[in-house]
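In the design runs reported in the main text, the only information available to the sequence generator was the tokenized backbone. The following block is the verbatim input for one such run; it is reproduced so that readers can re-run the procedure and compare outputs position by position.
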């Protein structure tokens, strides 16, 4: 398409454009998502391999399947859970009325301290099934590549494979 119009460039130029513009696009999409998420969130985490190192990818979707936010963390602990919930509220602009998780030990305290005690926290592995199924797209994308080749900002390599994550872009911690 570009050759027909007289443009010639290498694949390295495309990679440079990706490195330069992907964070800008992700930030614009995050700003557009402000106020768009529903009041019921489904939160889960999964392991992904980034540059040969296993990391936790925290994700939240609302009742309609829209991405609330995501966070890539080196650790799966209280601090990471609190950072994720704080970032999700900052992106969306409001706290949820109800959060459904799979029963991770850090979630009850992180929800209580970050979102407030009036947020209803439900723990049930089967209620979170819609998010578990959504993780499948990430896993299927990363298996042939033997992990993600991106830096701690996986928006470039993960985003196209995620059904409901049209505005994925994790900020560095």
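Verbatim output:
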């Amino acid at each position: 398409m570009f050759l027909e119009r007289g443009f010639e460039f290498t694949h390295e130029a495309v990679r440079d454009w990706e490195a330069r513009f992907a964070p800008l696009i992700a930030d614009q999409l995050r700003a557009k998502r402000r106020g768009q998420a529903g009041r019921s969130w489904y939160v889960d985490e999964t392991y992904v391999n980034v540059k040969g190192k296993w990391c936790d990818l925290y994700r939240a979707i609302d009742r309609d399947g829209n991405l609330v936010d995501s966070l890539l963390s080196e650790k799966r602990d209280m601090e990471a859970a609190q950072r994720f919930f704080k970032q999700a509220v900052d992106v969306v602009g409001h706290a949820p009325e109800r959060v459904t998780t799979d029963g991770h030990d850090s979630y009850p305290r992180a929800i209580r301290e970050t979102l407030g005690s009036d947020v209803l926290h439900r723990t049930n592995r089967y209620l979170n099934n819609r998010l578990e199924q959504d993780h499948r797209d990430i896993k299927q994308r990363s298996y042939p590549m033997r992990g993600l080749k991106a830096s701690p900002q996986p928006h470039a390599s993960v985003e196209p494979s995620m059904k409901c994550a049209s505005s994925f872009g994790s900020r560095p911690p």
